[in-house]
């Protein structure tokens, strides 16, 4: 038989089968399609698996990379940036201070009144606005003019009737949550953008100078007394309330962490002297990478399609900017294998809402699929599938973040490995109470994420050690902490406390 004849025969046979078995075929094909979709889910589950053994490998890798990043400039994907914060607020700061917090999604303006006693933040006012998308990829001047004008309106509104002249001098802490090479506690140069920002003419510029120029253009007299990362602000507030706070983690649009390091362990900066003997180090952990991280084809594709390929690998598995996108890619793949969903877009908060739907027939999932994603008539088993996908992606993210936290504790000897011997604590090596401050929209608003993270920390450390480790959620710490640091660095307040 020639090739054409053979093809015709196959086609004829196929057509005959098709005609004969349309009804049965539909059932079989839909069963087959469903099987393929389940295979996609299984493959995802396997690819995202994070048994405790693997998490411990990640913990070790984090600690090793921290050492390498402290040993030499460029020694690790963890940049381990100096912050020049060598003392944390004492609690004795007094007066009115301001903060600007430029996150990845939101911009916040804060006014904080300090009463001069520990934990006596008399009041704080916050205004939060989404950052207009066009400003994230526009020009430096436009972004900073927006910041200065929102600040000006805030000040006018907050202080109307107070008798303060608009042009009086104000002290401010600026939370700028992008990698900055600090040159002092109140100055630094932008190294690169993350979280979807791409303002080319800003990279390599002095951040505070850009802000200061915008204030001048807007007729405001503001002294930027501290330039801090959001993690550092969170650590400052955490430490203000609880002196056992040694590290801070942000899990919002992006993710990052900082902690208090001994100055003599910062080998790349020989001769660094601080009165406290320590300094806060901004890890920039979003860029952490290790072969132990469970990476799937969805992660590879997401990275390749992102504006910053091969960058921020840890962040792309963990934070709010990416989780919804991973889920969207999985669902798209399921749709290609069958036709269960149709095209879908997914943002992380929607994903969280679907994931947390605990009604027996998943009415919230149905509503979101119908009203927001415009996918109609989705049967219950498919809705359950969507929840499963959210669960796998979130569980992996939360558990990896937990491994990151334990990695820090390991680096600073607070993971109990030296402190508790064969289940009995000895008085001389007792595990010290250790607090880690955490904030960010993903951790705060996504209950399932928070539960998975907290649970994994206990799983990795073991119950006995974990009793001594407290994950403390702070609110607006990234901003309030910057105001506290502005206060402790202003000439009016010189008192500080030891942090080691
Ligand atoms: P920023 O990162 O701008 O400082 P946030 O810390 O408030 O701001 O984090 C905002 C991010 O947190 C959002 O972009 C989103 O990814 C995530 N997020 C906010 N609310 C939820 C929610 N309910 N469920 C899941 N993720 C959320
Ligand atoms: Mg933030």
TrEMBL record:
Where does this chain mainly localize? mitochondrion
Limits of the Hexokinase C-terminal domain: 247-487
Q: Which GO terms describe its biological process?
A: glycolytic process; hexose metabolic process; intracellular glucose homeostasis
Q: In which pathway does it act?
A: Carbohydrate metabolism; hexose metabolism; Carbohydrate degradation; glycolysis; D-glyceraldehyde 3-phosphate and glycerone phosphate from D-glucose: step 1/4
Localization of this protein: Mitochondrion outer membrane
- PROSITE patterns membership: HEXOKINASE_1, HEXOKINASE_2, PROKAR_LIPOPROTEIN
Q: Which UniProt keywords apply?
A: ATP-binding, Glycolysis, Kinase, Membrane, Mitochondrion, Mitochondrion outer membrane, Nucleotide-binding, Signal, Transferase
InterPro entries referenced in this protein's UniProt entry, alphabetically:
ATPase_NBD, Hexokinase, Hexokinase_BS, Hexokinase_C, Hexokinase_N
Q: Where is the signal peptide?
A: 1-25
Q: Which is an annotated GO molecular function term of this record? A: D-glucose binding
Task: Show the GO cellular component annotation of the record.
Answer: cytosol; mitochondrial outer membrane
Q: How does it sit in the membrane?
A: Single-pass membrane protein
User: Which top EC class is given?
Assistant: transferase
**Residue intervals of the Hexokinase N-terminal domain:** 41-240
Q: Which CDD domains match?
A: ASKHA_NBD_HK_plant
Q: What is its EC number?
A: 2.7.1.-
PANTHER family named among the record's database cross-references: HEXOKINASE, HEXOKINASE-4
Assigned protein family: Belongs to the hexokinase family.
* Name listed for the protein in its UniProt record: Phosphotransferase
